[in-house]
Design goal:
By secondary structure, the protein is α+β, with helices and mostly antiparallel strands. It has two helices and eight strands. It comes from Rotaria socialis.
């Protein structure tokens, strides 16, 4: 799942996700409207039952991973690390992988001979590579979103300057026309 939202300076955003035993949660975020290099947020996973923090990231662009040993409810929270004066536009992607569940079903359904073990290892390797490729794809999408946001912000300023230039050119045209006309003005008697 991927989405974007505005993070208010005084608020903390939290989302809840129920994770089954053996699930892997991969979470990635990026601040799209960064003002300075020091701007960052704090993102963390918190166990909703015990309120203990499980994983933390404090950067402009980061990711968190969590593999569960039991079924649990996780809070995915984000907030401003330092007191800021502006709202941050954040792009978020997260995905839940149920790899262990699928592998357990394969083990249950087959008689585990050597060929089955090799097949299991190949499936495990393919699954691992698919997960890594998906994470790279999410990173690429977030970079594209950040570039798109910068292009949109630059377009706003370009349009503003173009409008100012048009007003200056039109006013110069009117002034010059009036001034030149007044030079050739003759009085009629």
């Amino acid at each position: 799942m991927g989405f974007k939202f505005w993070l208010d300076p005084i608020l903390e955003e939290c989302y809840h996700e129920l994770l089954e035993e053996g699930s892997r949660l991969y979470f990635m975020y990026d601040i799209l409207n960064v003002d300075t290099h020091q701007d960052s947020i704090i993102a963390y996973f918190r166990n909703a039952y015990t309120r203990s923090i499980v994983a933390v990231s404090k950067t402009q662009r980061g990711h968190l991973e969590l593999t569960t040993n039991e079924t649990t409810l996780i809070d995915i929270c984000m907030g401003h690390e330092n007191p800021d004066t502006y709202v941050k536009y954040i792009s978020v992607y997260f995905h839940i992988y149920h790899v262990e569940k699928a592998l357990a079903k394969i083990k249950e359904s087959e008689h585990f001979y050597n060929t089955s073990i090799d097949f299991h290892n190949v499936l495990d390797s393919i699954t691992h590579h698919i997960i890594i490729l998906r994470e790279y794809q999410m990173e690429r999408d977030m970079t594209n979103q950040k570039d798109s946001y910068l292009i949109e912000a630059n377009l706003f300023w370009i349009n503003r300057w173009a409008s100012i230039h048009i007003v200056v050119i039109v006013s110069c045209f009117l002034f010059q026309t009036y001034f030149i006309k007044s030079l050739f003005k003759t009085s009629r008697k």
